[in-house]
Amino acid sequence: MWKIFNLIFPSECPSCNGLTDNLKYAPFCSDCWQSLNHNPDTKRCLTCGIALPPDYAFKCLTCIKESPHYRKIYVFGDYEGTLKTAINLLKFEKVRRLSRPLGRLLSCLPLPPVDVILPVPLSKKRLILRGFNQSHLLCDILSRELSIPLEPNILVKPRDIQPQSLLSRAKRLKNPRGAFSVISPAKRLLPRRVFIVDDVMTTGATINECARVLLRAGVKEVYGAVLARTKSD
Q1: What is the count of structural domains for the chain?
Q2: Which string of b and e fits 157-193 if b means at least 16 CB within 10 Å?
Q3: Which of 10, 32, 60, 183 could bond 15 through an S-S bridge, CB–CB 3.0 to 4.6 Å?
Q4: Are strands 116-119 and 155-156 parallel, antiparallel or unpaired?
Q5: Residue in 150, 120, 147 with CA at minimum distance from that of residue 226
Q6: Helix-helix angle 99-106:81-91, to 10 degrees
């Protein structure tokens, strides 16, 4: 049926330029999507998840010099190739159907048990401009796959800040400071252990700031799960 559909409305895979052959991964072809396998043998920092050079043991220099507020970031892959293309299509081209297969990629990670899953929030202004929060979409799929509650309203972003992608590394580290707040769920305590989910991590400043305010509010352990990590911060 998909082949017939492609004859009428040709759809080109953005990764290999071949024809799309499966609605589940569209606009990607099955072969390109299946190439997105998590590689547990990739040597990564045990804290922030960045890919490490061969001569490094367990942590990157940044995490050795100053430990972040989160316990550990779990990373599916590096921000390159088909994974990068898929994330950008979801985030900037608004191909929202990709949130389902991308969210399922996150569920392949060896994630520890937590009480709730939290998306990195957008400000109201940014949410209106984009129309959706891609982190929330990924959280929704991950929540269903792992049967862990999704709490989208505990962590909020009262004010807008400059997009991290437009800033230098030095400014990225300072930019999220004070941008997030925690709202305690009505009539109950904050969860003890939480996962913060985002699509891409560069310096880790955003998740680190989220973790800082959560710990300050009373959460005991904060972990992160991201689809992609840049190879340098």
Answers
A1: 2
A2: beeebeebeebeeeebbebbeebbebeeeeeeebbee
A3: 32
A4: unpaired
A5: 120
A6: 130
Going residue by residue through the chain (233 aa), what tens digit of pLDDT does each one get?
A: 656 655 555 678 898 988 888 778 888 988 999 888 788 788 999 999 999 988 888 899 999 999 999 999 999 999 999 999 999 999 999 999 899 999 999 999 999 999 999 999 999 888 998 999 999 999 999 999 999 999 999 999 987 655 555 555 566 555 567 789 998 765 467 889 999 999 999 989 999 999 999 999 999 999 999 999 998 77
Question: Do 24 and 101 reside in the same domain of the chain?
Answer: no
The CATH number of whichever domain residue 101 belongs to comes to 3.40.50
**How far from chain centre, in Å, is Cα 197?**
5
CA dihedral of 221, 179, 64, 232, whole degrees rounded to 10: 120
Residue with tokens 């994974």: 83
Q: What range does the domain containing 221 cover?
A: 45-229
- Residue 228 CA to residue 142 CA, distance in Å, equals 15
